[in-house]
Write a structure and sequence with these properties.
The chain is an all-alpha fold. Helix content is 31%, strand content 0%.
């Protein structure tokens, strides 16, 4: 079992080009989604607690600051 390895499914550039070519040929609408922006700019509920820790080696300057 791969307990210590992390794998992420990644689409190849050829796949994107093929989908865009099909969209152009069949006049499909193409939409995009920004995954990073969703996580960084997502709305949090007021009553939920968020637990997080800084990355290793990061120096914490003071309490209540944005990292």
């Amino acid at each position: 079992m791969d307990y210590y390895d992390t794998y992420s499914p990644v689409a190849k550039l050829v796949s994107f080009r093929t989908i865009l070519a099909l969209a152009a040929q069949y006049d499909w609408d193409v939409k995009s989604f920004n995954f990073n922006g969703v996580y960084l700019n997502g709305k949090l509920e007021q009553d939920k607690e968020i637990y997080m820790q800084p990355p290793p080696g990061y120096k914490i300057v003071g309490e209540g600051r944005v990292l």
